[in-house]
Design goal:
- The chain is built from 18 helices and ten strands.
- It is globular, with a radius of gyration of 24 Å.
- It has helices at about 10-20, 35-40, 45-55, 70-85, 100-110, 120-130, 150-160, 185-200, 205-215, 230-235, 245-255, 285-300, 310-335, 345-380, 385-390, 395-410, 420-425, 430-440, and strands spanning about 1-5, 25-35, 60-70, 90-95, 135-140, 165-170, 175, 180, 225-230, 260-265.
- With about 450 residues, it is an alpha/beta fold.
- Helix 4 (about 70-85) links the parallel strand 3 and strand 4.
- An eight-stranded mixed beta sheet has the order 1-10-6-9-5-2-3-4, with helices on both faces.
- It has two domains: about 1-180 and about 220-275 and about 415-440, Spore Coat Polysaccharide Biosynthesis Protein SpsA, Chain A (Alpha-Beta Complex); about 185-215 and about 275-415, no CATH class.
């Protein structure tokens, strides 16, 4: 596994290299977005700044705008903005429109795609469209980057387009104004990975430690800006919940041989911030933290054989809390040194009242079926009234049902690979190219 941080180099030299290499490689950029990201007054300037910079990028073969939650009028407004800013070679993937809705329907009827609405579903089809176009390199850019500049795209693509890396992932400093952000990464994921490593290093579980160490090498595991070589992209599965970035990195660990981590910007990097949503675990950072934790543990259990119990999660939360407290102290000192505003009390409260509880909640979700089975087995073996049923195989039936329940609990919502899809639906890329043609006519 090759792993480097590529720092910013001479702009003109980098652009020349990209243009030269892109002549032989079709390079496609995917931008998933909601209609609100260009219709809401507070978001419009952010999106227009992105379009302004994209209009000056010359080496991209296509730019796919995966548009969700949009009416036809809003899709037409997107077209008008793209024309206004003279963005070239764009495709509007209007997911709520009749053409791409039909594409989802075909995939769904073939049993090949998980259809929970959201960014994961959006990106999944965008990747298929890019592969249908014959892309050699596919990159992803979020549509809410407030500090976007053209150089960021160049830095992201350079390792895969020029140096033939399998995968490139962005890292950057999460600072807005004089405040530190990246709270889920700093206060949940980093101390959680360190806690897992501490728990696993005693039994010397090298198989799982390899994954943990790989994840810890990334400066910002939760960044959404990535680029793939198409040969790797075809084999990838993608989670469709808030754990998507972690799931993708674990897939890359297993399926890629060369990985680059790229400093996307030397300047402070800012995009939309999520609310904490402390009282509602279905929203905001609360939901994100639960999804990240369950996704990470799911993969370690299902693919790597990690054994978990309610005791495991209680111990994990305890170790996590101790490590988290030390890291908060470190952030407080670093913030003071760099003249940044830092509310240590609020960070400690967030770690204690939200993220620690998310770990315990993930434990409840993932061990519930074992607890229920254990209690039920104790009952049926305690009371003689159950003896005839035990002799008839009741205990075996309970254990069989528990196995099925456990399998469903430990299934991360995810897509199948496009490699698998093309084997089952050999004409799917031909159909997607026809959908692209029809949608192009609609928005011409």
């Amino acid at each position: 596994m090759t792993f480097r941080i590529l720092v910013k180099q001479d702009r003109n030299k980098l652009q020349r290299s990209l243009k030269e290499s892109a002549r032989q490689k079709k390079t496609v950029l995917v931008i998933p977005l909601l209609a609100s990201e260009f219709t809401a007054l507070e978001n419009r300037p952010v999106f227009e700044n992105i379009l302004s910079h994209l209009s000056r990028v010359r080496y991209l073969y296509r730019i796919i705008f995966g548009l969700d939650q949009a009416s036809e009028d809003e899709a037409l407004l997107l077209r008008d903005l793209l024309k206004q800013y003279q963005v070239k070679n764009y495709i509007i993937q209007w997911n709520d429109g009749p053409i791409f809705s039909q594409a989802y329907k075909v995939l769904n009827e073939a049993g090949l795609v998980f259809l929970e609405p959201g960014k994961g579903k959006n990106l999944f089809l965008s990747f298929g469209i890019a592969l249908a176009l014959g892309a050699n390199v596919v990159g992803v850019l979020d549509a809410d980057i407030r500090s976007f500049e053209r150089d960021q795209i160049n830095n992201l693509f350079y390792p895969v387009v020029v140096n033939d890396y399998d995968f490139s992932k962005a890292c950057y400093n999460r600072i807005s104004g004089d405040r530190l952000y990246g709270r889920v990464k700093r206060l949940l994921l980093d101390p959680l990975l360190l806690a897992l490593r501490k728990k696993l290093i005693e039994p010397k579980d090298h198989k799982i430690l390899g994954i943990i160490d790989f994840l810890m090498q990334f400066n910002y595991q939760l960044s959404g800006e990535v680029a793939f070589n198409s040969d790797v992209l075809k084999k990838m599965h993608f989670a469709t919940n808030w754990g998507a970035e972690i799931f993708t990195l674990i897939e890359i660990y297993h399926k890629a041989t060369s990985v680059a981590q790229v400093m996307l910007s030397q300047k402070p990097f800012d995009h939309k911030h999520q609310d904490v949503s402390e009282a509602d675990e279905t929203k905001g950072l609360n939901r994100m933290a639960i999804d990240i934790t369950t996704t990470l543990i799911n993969v370690l259990v299902e693919d790597e054989g990690l054994e978990v119990s309610d005791d495991f999660f209680r111990d994990l939360a305890l170790v996590y809390s101790k490590i988290g407290e030390r890291r908060i102290s470190m952030y407080s000192e670093e913030a003071a040194f760099n003249n940044l505003s830092y509310d240590r009390d609020e960070e400690e409260r967030l770690m204690r009242n939200v993220f620690r509880k998310c770990i315990l909640r993930a434990g409840e979700i993932l061990t519930a079926q074992s607890l229920i089975t254990g209690r039920f087995m104790r009952v049926i073996h305690t009371y003689p009234e159950f003896k005839p049923h035990l002799e008839a195989g009741l205990a075996d039936t309970i254990l069989s049902v528990e196995k099925k329940m456990k399998r469903s609990f430990f299934e991360t919502p995810q897509t199948v690979s496009w490699e698998r899809i093309t084997k089952k639906l050999p004409n799917i890329f031909k159909d997607l190219n026809e959908a692209i043609r029809q949608e192009k006519n609609r928005f011409s």
